[in-house]
Amino acid sequence: MHIPDGFLNGTTAAATALVSAAALGYSAHKVKKQMGDKYIPLLGVIAAFVFAAQMLNFPVAAGTSGHFVGGVLAAALLGPEAGLLVMASVIVVQAFIFQDGGLTALGANILNMGFVGTFLGYYFYVLIKKIINQKAALFISAWTMTVVASAFCAVELAISGVVPLKLALPAMAGVHALIGLGEAVITVAAFAFVKRLRPDLIKG
Fold first, then answer.
1. Cβ distance 146 to 112 under 8 Å?
2. How far is it, in rounded angstroms, from Cα 173 to Cα 4?
3. What CA–CA distance (Å, rounded) separates 109 from 34?
4. Distance (Å, rounded) from C-alpha 198 to C-alpha 195?
5. Is the per-residue pLDDT at 77 higher than 70?
6. Which long-range contacts link 161-165 to residues 24+ away (Cβ below 8 Å)?
7. Residue 36: how many CB atoms within 10 A of its CB?
8. C-alpha distance from residue 168 to each of 36, 43, 124, 157 (Å)
9. pTM of the entire structure?
10. Are 153 and 173 in contact (CB under 8 A)?
11. Contact between 79 and 117 (Cβ < 8 Å)
């Protein structure tokens, strides 16, 4: 889902960068104000886990593969603001060191893989957790946000004139509907592991 350089036009790249910058600024302010020192190591641990987990690819269909994203997991453990900071740090490291995702598309990648999973994913998770149990809510949220993030990506590519939306949207959403199953399983398992060992570190 990482968008490389040259795929987004200037307007789309600038608009997504502004939205991501605003979300990151807000999140940094909230985290500094609300989170205590005991959460700082957890931010590093979750960032390291997400980074390592994203290195593991799993096959999907027709020779394609997907990887764990981690936005819903980070938000469920830390809250949406700290979760976004974790995701942004991972995406920035991937772009600058591993050339996974373009620098001009950094705002779009943070928006798609970071903001969608942490903010939209978190509040969707909280909403449906009132109806179903926690594990099912995590599973559904992680799967849904994987598909939603892919839809954001498809729209950005279509706006930039790379591929028509009628082709990009079903292709991206279809593949990521399968990728989302792996995302959901890992999210539920990782959350359960942290909850069992250190439930006190889970925000809320």
1. no
2. 19
3. 26
4. 6
5. yes
6. 161/9, 162/7, 162/8
7. 6
8. 43, 34, 25, 8
9. 0.90
10. no
11. no
